[in-house]
Amino acid sequence: LSRFLQSDDLHYLKWLHDINSNKFKEAHFTLMNLGRHETEILARKKTLLSLSKLAALASEDVDEEMENSIQEIDEEHDLILHQELLPADLVQGLDMEPEHMRVLEPAELVRLYVSEENVSATEYDFKKALDLLNFMAKGESGDNLEILRMHIWCQAILKEKTIWTHNPVGDPLDSIKDTIFLKTVALAFREGWNPQTFLPELKQLLRFPELGELRENQNLHFFLKAAYEQILSILK
Amino acid sequence: YQQQEVTTVTEEDRKKIEAINWLVFDESQRAEAMKQTNAVMRSFIAVKKLEAAREIFEKLPPDSVDVIHRMWHLQTGSADLPVEERNTIREYLCIKAYLDAIDSFNDWFKLNNHGKPTRPSLGSGSTFTEKVAHEHRMKQYEQELERWRHSLNLQTQTTKEHIYNVLLFADGGWMVDQNQNNEMEEDMKDMKRQEQMDGLRGLVLPGLCFLLHNVLHTCQQYIECLRLADIVASEHHKLYQVFRKDELQHLLHLLRESSLSVLDQNCDPLGYELQ
């Protein structure tokens, strides 16, 4: 029976058989495979991975390989949590039922969190977008990652375009200290991140096509320069 | 995996229960009374004497949390309770949540197993009048059955909520102090208390998971059964840590049964409709 259950469609049943014959290690790997390849329904992916983790923990001999895969499951669960925490109105706008959401890629999640449609986005949404870049690091090529990082910061600026482009009066830092941009930096900073790893270079950022005509805006140049100087001075 | 509840209350238990009477008399001693009550309830729950735990719980007036806040404010003028008192109140609320969950499960069990109306029977070769009377009884039976189903649904909902309240107890989990005493004065008494609370987590939480599965499975809420896996495996609540290996195995067997039942309804093993 166990060999019969190896065929592709039947993997879905094999773990039931494994549990029944107290082969928890095998159930763990079967469920883990199913969970990893699940893309249709987020909640199903989550439960498959949870069952896989429980099967690993229930097994009598937990070896190093299993410990690693438990850790991998925890990371996958982390990513799933980022999707579950998407604001409800944003999900509705996507025409997806929260109960039957499909599995979104990390890059898709990044774009959603910082999108214009996420009307009430705060620094926490932008920080989540930065967190999500870490989930991409393994699969994606470095270029895509860089473009997406740039996208996050450009969106932060575009979201508060009027603040970044107004005519400066008084201390420039005073007028930008409450921007999502700087609050996101502060948030990452508090978690011990090094700004050099998550902030793009100022010159590159100001040349990035997504900013459009803002690239020529002297006020934006002025404010961003002040912001970067402030961040660097804190670093020292 | 379901140890039987012990319902006898011995003479010695009775003494412990009655002793609280002396402490609740003076409101300024209410914090101490709650601390003592907690300690006695811990020892009762550890040996499954839930009847006794319930009795002593009821000795403590229900407004005790307010009284403790008020007395502290009167004595010191400060609104913030010290760490020890905050932990005592939190523990008291944890135990209350547990006793509520067990009561609620018992009510559900009674209703599910004994409350169901019995179908009237009609012997063969009955007369015309007997048949008419039977028809009438059948109608009554249908109505009673509908009423029973309705109250069972309501009771199921309440019981689920009460059990989830314990399993997912806010801010760190059931019987976990939220505030650590930073000072070095963590004396032997406190260490013993910590040990007992940890022990109770292992004793109570897996059992409650099994009870919840029982409720959900009996009421054919199989998808929610399988979602128990998410709750136990979650890194946020870390419930899996209080399960022994054999308990985890038992849980997986239970979830497997739910999965098989849902397969019978033309769904995939996790309860999603087949496409």
What does this entry look like structurally?
The complex is a heterodimer of chains A (236) and B (275). With 236 residues, chain A is mostly helical. Chain A has 2 domains: 4-84, Up-down Bundle (Methane Monooxygenase Hydroxylase, Chain G, domain 1); 105-235. Chain A has 14 helices and no strands. The radius of gyration of chain A is 23 Å and the shape is elongated. Chain B is 68% helix and 0% strand. Chain B contains 9 helices and no strands. With 275 residues, chain B is mainly alpha-helical. The two termini of chain B are 38 Å apart. Chain B has a domain at 11-195: Delta-Endotoxin, domain 1, CATH 1.20.190. The interface between A and B is medium-sized, with 28 and 24 residues.
List keywords for this structure.
heterodimer, A: 236 residues, mainly alpha, Methane Monooxygenase Hydroxylase, Chain G, domain 1, 2 domains, 14 helices, B: 275 residues, Delta-Endotoxin, domain 1, 68% helix
Order of helices and strands of chain B: HHHHHHHHH
Q: What is the strand tally of chain A?
A: 0
**CATH topology label of the domain at 11-195 in chain B:** Delta-Endotoxin, domain 1
Number of helical stretches of at least 4 residues of chain A = 14
Describe the protein's topology.
The complex is a heterodimer of chains A (236) and B (275).
Chain A: H1 11-20, H2 24-37, H3 42-58, H4 64-84, H5 88-93, H6 106-113, H7 123-136, H8 142-159, H9 161-165, H10 172-176, H11 180-190, H12 195-198, H13 202-207, H14 218-235
Helix pairs in contact in A: 1-2, 2-3, 3-4, 6-7, 7-8, 7-11
Chain B: H1 11-24, H2 30-46, H3 50-59, H4 64-76, H5 83-114, H6 128-167, H7 188-218, H8 222-233, H9 245-263
Helix pairs in contact in B: 1-2, 1-3, 2-3, 2-5, 2-7, 5-6, 6-7, 7-8, 7-9, 8-9
